[in-house]
């Protein structure tokens, strides 16, 4: 009686965490698209999000410090500039260009094109020798590339400028997640906890994006009635409020991913991500007026098959060679957990899997 009840509560908990992840992941996509309809400054929006994420990360680190009674990792300048800066630059350009593309393209085209990041992740994984070339990877690439071509073929809502922006973001996303994996696998840096990783990335991300913001949006934002050239305080407060909501969703997305994989498994997050793409496209067609033909839907199915195959291969590989996937650290696993995530005695059998997924969570888009 106790055993089935235990599995029931674990399944119920997993479902709740998946829905929690969906709320932030799907929510921020639709929210940013809605915001871009009236606020045409995606790079400034991204900068505000970075500040909010940094503040929440700093607060979370303080909570961890007081809970565990030991200081959090703080990198010195040489390691910070040479090890973290490349990851930060690739990350902020990925996010910035993704938000920028919302000015031009539909949610469905964004979702589909962003899925092509798997292609670039595989490419850079081969370049950095994180993956071994094999026929299965070639099949994954062909399926995803064919699906993307079919999805954009004769699309009535296709926009070349937005498509190029999000494709560039996907390319940078491949660099981003490969560098993130390398960063988190360096035990001497001590950045296995995603909270510490986000804390160290945000300042460099802000500095990296700020020049592009000044060049592209600086003058127009200064003369905009949304923030600076206003006749009353209400529009400014409204703009800051809407931007703050987006920043909170952005932090919540990262935290919900970490929470999901820490309490279930990396496979759960990967499968949830696939169904999330389906939910996003269905919701976009239903509520945002996105139009998709039969060949577009077929292309989406083909692309999902490629992504599913990639997830299956990664899962088999991680089970067969766990030590090569999870970050190695001389510290105990308690340093990698939030207070909410402390294990009890009944969950010790999940320890091996939960060590692996800290690295895997940072690879999700």
Automatic annotation (TrEMBL):
It is a multi-pass membrane protein. It is found in: Membrane. Residues 17-309 form the Sugar phosphate transporter domain. Keywords: Membrane, Transmembrane, Transmembrane helix. Its main location: membrane. The chain crosses the membrane at residues 12-31, 43-64, 102-128, 134-153, 160-179, 199-215, 236-255, 267-288, 295-313. InterPro entries: Sugar_P_trans_dom, TPT_transporter. This is Sugar phosphate transporter domain-containing protein.
């Amino acid at each position: 009686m106790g055993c089935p009840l235990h599995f029931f509560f674990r399944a119920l908990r997993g479902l709740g965490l998946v829905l929690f992840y969906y709320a932030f992941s799907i929510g921020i996509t639709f929210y940013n698209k809605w915001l871009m309809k009236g606020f045409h400054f995606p790079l400034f929006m991204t900068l505000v999000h970075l500040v909010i994420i940094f503040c929440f990360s700093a607060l979370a680190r303080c909570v961890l410090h007081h809970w565990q009674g030991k200081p959090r990792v703080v990198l010195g300048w040489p390691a910070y500039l040479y090890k973290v800066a490349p990851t930060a630059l690739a990350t902020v350009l990925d996010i910035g260009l993704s938000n920028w593309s919302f000015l031009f393209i539909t949610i469905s085209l964004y979702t589909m094109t962003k899925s092509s990041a798997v292609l670039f992740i595989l490419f850079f994984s081969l370049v950095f020798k994180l993956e071994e070339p094999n026929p299965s990877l070639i099949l994954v690439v062909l399926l995803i590339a064919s699906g993307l071509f079919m999805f954009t073929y004769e699309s009535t809502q296709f926009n070349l400028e937005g498509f190029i922006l999000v494709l560039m973001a996907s390319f940078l996303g491949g660099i981003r997640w490969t560098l993130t994996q390398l960063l988190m696998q360096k035990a001497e840096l001590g950045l296995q906890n995603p909270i510490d990783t986000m804390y160290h990335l945000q300042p460099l991300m802000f500095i990296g994006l700020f020049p592009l913001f000044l060049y592209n949006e600086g003058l127009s934002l200064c003369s905009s009635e949304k923030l600076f050239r206003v006749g009353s305080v209400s529009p400014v407060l409204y703009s800051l409020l809407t931007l703050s909501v987006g920043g909170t969703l952005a932090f919540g997305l990262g935290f919900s991913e970490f929470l999901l994989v820490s309490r279930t498994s990396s496979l759960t997050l990967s499968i949830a991500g696939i169904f999330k793409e389906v939910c996003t496209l269905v919701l976009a067609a239903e509520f945002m007026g996105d139009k998709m033909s039969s060949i577009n839907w077929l292309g989406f199915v083909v692309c999902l098959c490629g992504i599913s195959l990639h997830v299956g291969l990664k899962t088999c590989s991680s089970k067969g060679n766990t030590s090569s996937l999870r970050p190695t650290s001389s510290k105990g696993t308690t340093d990698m957990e939030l207070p909410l995530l402390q294990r009890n005695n009944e969950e010790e059998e999940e320890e091996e899997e939960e060590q692996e997924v800290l690295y895997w969570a940072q690879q999700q888009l």
